[in-house]
Target: Ribosomal protein S24A
Amino acid sequence: MDPNGPVTIRTSKFITNRLLNRKQFVLNISHPTRANLSRSELGERLAQLYKTEAQRVVVFGLRAKFGGGSSQGFGLIYDDEESQKKFEPKYRLIRSGMATKVDKAGRKLRKERKNRSKKLRGTSKAKAGDAKKK
Model:
């Protein structure tokens, strides 16, 4: 596999979505000598192709065809950063580095704390949320 092999990017079903301030399309990528392409590399190439910033390009849903050599995915090009932050899902903003991930306790731990606090009343209820002491 040649890491610098030839790559052909084709876009189809190209739509200008004025409501969401973006262009959206299906990507068909041909990469016969490469295993796959990174999302960031695809973003840079699409930004060059459509004369926009690489940060405004969002590529997701990439699936390699069985047997290799080609992949298919979905792409969006936002008109501005404001509309991108407004309409993109949080996980994709985190993925692209435009938002930070909020760290919270695990699901089971949150449920256990909730159920411990149910058994208590008053000021001791707040203490039930804290971790158990050994």
User: Anything to note?
Assistant: Residues 8-96 form a domain with the Alpha-Beta Plaits fold (CATH 3.30.70.3370). The radius of gyration is 22 Å. Strands lie at 8-17, 22-30, 57-64, 70-78.
